[in-house]
Amino acid sequence: MPGRHIHTAGERIDVERFRVFAIHPIAHASQQREIAQALRFVRAPHPGDASTRTGGCPATNPLVCLELPVDRPVCHTDAVASSPARPSPAVRILDTANRLFYDEGFRVGIDRVISESKVAKASFYRAYPSKDDLIVAVLRRRHEEWTRWFVRRVDALTTERGRSLVRLADALGEWFARDDFRGSPFTNAMADASLPRTAVEVVHRHDEALRRALLAYLEHVGLEASDEVADQVSLIVEGAIVRAQRADRPDAAAAAARAAASLLARLDRPV
C-alpha cells in the first residue's frame, strides 16, 4: 500500500511500487530474501535448507527468481564471489566475454576471451567447461543487469514525470543514446544460427520476464493489463530496440524512441 517502505542493504524501497512492478532481484541473495519475505512472494527459507547453503533460489515469482534451463534456478548470486581488487579468473572471463560478445557477437573465439581475460586455459575450462556454458552465463548476466536497470529507471521516471506508458520510451531513449548501445543482446543472440539450445531458452525466458513486467506496469499505470495489450507494448518496445540499432541514419536511435513514445501514447488510456 502507498507509503509503506522496507529498508534493505541501505536502500529505502516503496513496497507497493515494488509489488506492482514486479521488480527483478536488486543486489544480493540476502536482500532478495528480505524483500521477497516482506512482500510474501516466497516462503521464509530455513537456515539449514539447501537454497541458503548452496546459493539456490527459493523464490517462486518468476521476476524474483528467473528459473532458467541450466543446472539450478538462476539468482543474482550466480556471480562468482571475489575481492573487488582481485577479481577471480571466472569473474575476469565473464567480464571479458560479456563485453566482447555484446560488441562483436557470439562468434568471438575462446582463445581471444582467454587472452584478454589474462587467465590460463585450464582456469577457463574449470570455470566454463564449454563455450556454450559461457554464452549462457553471459546472457544470464545481461538479463539481470538490463532488467534491473530498466525496471529501476522506468520506476524513477514514473515518480518524476507521472504514470504513463511513455515512461517506457523515455527509459529506452536514454539507453539508445549511450555510446555503448549495440541493440538487444537477446535479439542479437537469436540472429546467431550456432546459438546453443540452452542459450535460446535463456532468451525465451528473458522475453517472458519482460512481458510479465510490462503486464505489471500496465496495471500500475491504470491501464488494461491484458495479454493482448501487453503483447502490443512488448512489440513496440522490442521494435524500437531493433530500429534504434540500425545505422542507416544518424538519428535512428532518437527517431526510434520518439516513434515508441508516439505509439505508446495511443495506448495510454486508463480503463
From TrEMBL:
**Which Gene3D superfamilies is this protein grouped with?**
Tetracycline Repressor, domain 2
- What would be an example GO MF term here? transcription cis-regulatory region binding
Q: Does the keyword DNA-binding apply?
A: yes
Keyword entries, A-Z: DNA-binding
> Which domain of life, per UniProt?
Bacteria
Q: Does the keyword Transport apply?
A: no
Q: PROSITE patterns, alphabetically?
A: HTH_TETR_2
Annotated ranges, domain HTH tetR-type: 87-146
> Where in the chain is the DNA-binding region found?
109-128
Which PANTHER family would you find in this protein's record? HTH-TYPE TRANSCRIPTIONAL REGULATOR RUTR (PTHR30055), HTH-TYPE TRANSCRIPTIONAL REPRESSOR BDCR (PTHR30055:SF200)
Tell me the protein's name: TetR/AcrR family transcriptional regulator
